[in-house]
TrEMBL record:
Highest taxon, organism lineage: Eukaryota
Gene3D superfamilies: nmb1532 protein domain like (1.20.120.520)
Source organism of this protein record: Sodiomyces alkalinus (strain CBS 110278 / VKM F-3762 / F11) (Alkaliphilic filamentous fungus)
PANTHER family hit by this protein: HHE DOMAIN PROTEIN (AFU_ORTHOLOGUE AFUA_4G00730)
Pfam families: Hemerythrin
Domain Hemerythrin-like residues, every copy: 5-122
Name by which UniProt lists this protein: Hemerythrin-like domain-containing protein
């Protein structure tokens, strides 16, 4: 069984890989494919954290967990706003890579704090086996959430859950017409 913190960190590495693929290439087709993958990864990851991880902070860590969740929600909101701009850009746009770098600057700080402080604190507060169970829930949640950023849809349950169920099918249909790395 995989712990929740390991699953979250695995997602972070996947996003970092996509970021590096985009910023190290000048091929617009390559950038578009990995840009779509980056957007897909980040959108699903963010919502899964908001629906699974942040409520766990609050449930298992009391007031300190609530403060951590609120700080992380703020960081997510900022990232989602930037992702919304990025996901609607084309690699041919001169601001495509700069916008991604700006987004990554926000994300990298959040990732560092989450991996070095928030997730270890949560893991320490969990009962045996809870981390593995939440890891499974985190992965299942990502199967049903939107694959694009929709910050105006609301960012806290139950609104995000309801809006996500409405927007996810539309995102998935649109994804069928987008280029992704595995389609090469």
């Amino acid at each position: 069984m995989v712990r929740l913190s390991d699953k979250v960190a695995e997602d972070h590495r996947e996003m970092e890989k996509c970021f590096n693929e985009i910023t190290s290439s000048s091929d617009h087709d390559h950038q578009e494919r990995f840009g779509n993958q980056f957007t897909w990864e980040l959108a699903r990851h963010s919502i899964a954290e908001e629906l699974v991880v942040y409520p766990a902070f609050e449930k298992y860590m009391g007031n300190k967990g609530h403060e951590m969740a609120e700080e992380d929600r703020k960081a997510h909101h900022e990232a989602k706003e930037k992702l919304k701009k990025f996901q609607n850009m084309s690699p041919e746009d001169a601001n495509y890579v700069p916008m991604l770098k700006q987004l990554w600057g926000t994300l990298s700080k959040h990732i560092e704090e989450e991996e070095s402080h928030d997730l270890p604190a949560l893991e320490a507060a969990l009962e045996p086996g809870a981390s593995e169970t939440m890891s499974q829930s985190f992965e299942r949640t990502k199967m049903f959430v939107p694959t694009r950023s929709h910050p105006s849809a609301g960012e806290s349950p139950p609104f995000e859950t309801a809006m996500g169920l409405l927007t996810a099918p539309m995102d998935r249909i649109a994804d069928m017409f987008r280029k992704f790395p595995q389609d090469v």
